[in-house]
């Protein structure tokens, strides 16, 4: 059991490092980005400000557990219709059918080898260690095995101590409650698990897995659930975490696909997550114990549509729907602990750096609720391939949502990329949203929202604002192409504290009603063009030099009236042309940072620094809580 003990301690220590246990900086200071008292200049790189995600998990501990698969010297246990009780530490070999297994003493250190074992009971827990919190159990799987409890409201596997699975075999588990319940740490290496549960498929104090397969056929609640101990009274990263490395994970759940109280860390593997929630009308609010604010959907044909919080007043209680329970794809929960100085007061833990860290892997997420949601802490995506369809938000956090790599495709969402702060510094991001494509908003008054685009290729198709910040928008690099709304109530770019373009390639199109031009103190020149007549979808818009040679071209995906373009080639004193297909829309010479041409009388802010603010003018952004 030495390997198991090492595994738990190493992972706990590493998660603490990942989550920055020192918690010296809970919130980003926008002044770090808006140097010089809010001039829009960045003080250093984004990595200098936010720090790097550290990867210090130990693969050696996984390797030690992986090698612990020998059944030599095992006690062979004959099949039995009754419950076999294990009273001594040691190695036990099981083959054939059993009416149940039980731990008969506390402090047992067991190595159970299953080779074609079938454990089934209708009387209670099939593998029962629920009374012995000091037990340490390793189960080696050889061949095909099964554990089933048909008893109503009983777990199939319940170990109050620690549990590890390894071996090259497989195990199917079925239960009327939790398939696998572990009161301490659970580790899974190499083997294949197939789980069916009326409650959680996997529930443990913490879950770590490597090079294995976990297939949740169905779960009434979460696929994987890691919760801190009920007696934990202060935020900690020693428990409540999920760490998956090179895991093939698939699930269909009525709850969350992966839920952790503190940290989710994913590195490699394939994740196919489908969550299906149950909607009920607001008239049944008291029956299900759902808060009034959670009724934010309306029925649209045979499906449901998310609406903005400030629009719910238009609908009656029978027209508003809410989800019976959370059913997010990947989630770190918001933990509330009592304030010891004021026991009746609950405090929300928002400290820490990254609470969801995704390094690599292939992710297909189809969720009724948010696809990836960090309720406390920050969200980091540095690699991986994502295909996301959700009724709600695709990637969201209450604090910082940071993308430095990966390929992210959001085919359906309410809002695509969201956070108090949003930073995209690399990767490919393609977002389709029924409201805002990229949104920075927070209910926390300590957060002065910002969106930073410093790299990557970003494509936004939004029915609300294309890129919307309740604070500022700053672009320093990368490519940002925005197909904004066609309605007048929103715009392609919207920032309460202004927009500064210091680099990169920007092409944003939308209607006339809410056009917001970048600030005149931008370091890179900008063209803002508008016309009353709509430019038709599928038209190729091109910024060209004075000879008509294209510099930057985009095929627009919907009708538009306004066009905002910025790129390094748009130099001071240069002459340029804007084309719509073969038609020249305008010709101009750059003589100022902002060149405005066309129907400016219908436009919003014409550029420049507003009094008392940063960057360009004030748009129609929603206030805090408008997410």
> Helicity range of the residues?
under 10%
Residue runs with pLDDT of under 50 for 5 or more positions: 1-57, 601-627
Distance N to C terminus: 48 Å
- Beta-strand percentage range: over 45%
Number of helices: 5
Q: How many strand segments?
A: 49
The structure class reads: mainly beta
Mean pLDDT: 84
How would you characterize this protein structure?
The chain has 627 residues and is mostly beta strands. The strands form four sheets. It has a 39-stranded mixed β-sheet that branches. It is built from five helices and 49 strands. 6% of the residues lie in helices and 48% in strands. β44 and β45 form a beta hairpin. α1 packs antiparallel against α4.
List keywords for this structure.
627 residues; 6% helix; 39-stranded mixed β-sheet; disordered C terminus; mainly beta; 49 strands; four-stranded antiparallel β-sheet
Summarize the topology.
Elements: H1 2-18, H2 35-38, H3 46-50, H4 59-66, E1 75-77, E2 84-86, E3 90-98, E4 101-103, E5 109-121, E6 127-129, E7 136-142, E8 144-149, E9 157-159, E10 162-166, E11 170-175, E12 180-189, E13 192-197, E14 202-210, E15 213-219, E16 224-226, E17 241-253, E18 258-260, E19 263-275, E20 279-281, H5 285-288, E21 297-300, E22 303-306, E23 320-323, E24 330-332, E25 336-339, E26 342-348, E27 354-367, E28 372-374, E29 378-381, E30 385-390, E31 395-397, E32 400-403, E33 407-412, E34 417-419, E35 421-433, E36 438-440, E37 450-462, E38 467-469, E39 472-483, E40 493-495, E41 499-501, E42 505-510, E43 526-535, E44 540-545, E45 550-555, E46 560-566, E47 575-580, E48 583-589, E49 594-598
Parallel strand pairs: 1-3, 2-4, 3-5, 4-6, 5-7, 5-8, 6-9, 7-10, 8-11, 9-12, 10-12, 11-13, 12-14, 13-15, 14-16, 14-17, 15-17, 16-18, 17-19, 18-24, 19-27, 24-28, 27-29, 27-30, 28-31, 29-32, 30-33, 31-34, 32-35, 33-35, 34-36, 35-37, 36-38, 37-39, 38-40, 39-41, 39-42, 43-49
Antiparallel strand pairs: 20-23, 21-22, 21-23, 25-26, 42-46, 43-46, 44-45, 44-47, 47-48
Helix pairs in contact: 1-4
